[in-house]
Hints:
Elements: E1 2-7, E2 10-15, H1 24-28, E3 33-35, E4 41-43, H2 51-60, E5 66-70
Antiparallel strand pairs: 1-2, 2-5, 3-4
The structure holds iron/sulfur cluster.
Iron/sulfur cluster (SF4) is lined by residues 14, 19-25, 33, 35, 41, 61-63, 65-66.
Amino acid sequence: MSVEQVIGAVRVRVDRMRCVCSEFCTYIAPNTFETDGEGLVTLLAGSTDSEAAVREAARNCPASAITVEAVEP
Length: 73
Ligand code: SF4
């Protein structure tokens, strides 16, 4: 199951079926990602993390479960 949200100029999508619960994303961008009671990634509303932090989290996800794409203006 995917969850997505627009944060600033990017659309962030997480694929919970791919998530392996490493929690790297929650350390890198803690205002965007959190893990739920099952240990799987989910998105927080109203993120204040920078686009750079969100992209860094996506790069460091060992399961490639995070997708970040630019939103058309
Ligand atoms: S870094 Fe990837 S695998 Fe780890 S919790 Fe976040 S989405 Fe899941």
